[in-house]
Amino acid sequence: MDMTKQNAKRALTLTTVITLFVAGFEVFIAYTNYMPGMNFFDLASYVTANRYIYYLILIIANMVMLPSAVLLFTENGISLKDEIFEKKTLGKDILTGVIALALTGIVAVLSTFIYGCQTDMAYKAAKPTTGLTIMGVLALGLVSGIVKEIFFRGFAKKFCGSVMGEMTALLLFNVMFAMLDWYNFGFSFIIGLIWIWAYKKSGHLIAPMIAHGGINIISLIYWIVVAK
User: Fold this and answer.
1) C or N: which end of the chain has fewer Cβ atoms within 10 Å?
2) Residues 105 and 215 sit within 8 Å (Cβ to Cβ)
3) What one-character-per-residue DSSP string does 126-139 give?
4) Single pTM value for the model
5) Contacts made by residues 111-114, CB under 8 angstroms, sequence distance 24+
6) pLDDT-derived band at 1, boundaries 50, 70, 90
7) Separation between Cα atoms, residue 67 and residue 159, nearest integer Å
8) Are the beta carbons of 223 and 135 closer than 8 angstroms?
9) 179 exposed, middle or buried (CB, 10 Å; 0-12, 13-18, 19+)?
10) CB atoms within 10 A of CB 28
11) CB-based contacts of 141: which residues, under 8 Å, 6+ apart?
12) pLDDT interval class at 110 (50, 70, 90)
């Protein structure tokens, strides 16, 4: 196996491990909360019923695999920093990220139809504590917003694109991204398409990172404001 295919295999394996680990945990948590009479939308709402555990799993899964990701870039002479941003295009890339964030927000609003499909048996989140809010910023804004983009967008383009075609690789990894967030019923796939556009438009990961981390922080703020 030549080095290009070997790198693609490593990138695909690492991302698949994260996907199956987190998605498997989410399925387990959901079904341990199953009660007769629940519909699938109710069941999915329990994925984040214990936010502390959910955030902890996200942090652990991403941070444990991050050194392997950094090593893959380093071994191939690719600067991860340069892949994330370059000073000469930083302003343009940030603007692209902000535009992607705005588009993501529109899709996120449309995704609220899910709540209309839930019954009284669905999980109702209480207002978060200060500690839970801080952990949410860390898990969703920083770890998910930054590290997941390295795996689901960066790996696809830099290591798998040359083997299966860049767009094919980006779409394949986006399917895994949607699998990891299965409980939002495909909206992560749609949002992922926006972030693929931002990545291809800017050429740097900072654009989808801004959109990804930004929408997660906005969602967290919305939870704080709306939850009772």
Assistant:
1) C
2) yes
3) PPPPHHHHHHHIII
4) 0.95
5) 111/184, 111/187, 114/41, 114/184, 114/185
6) low
7) 16
8) no
9) middle
10) 11
11) 213, 216, 217, 220
12) confident
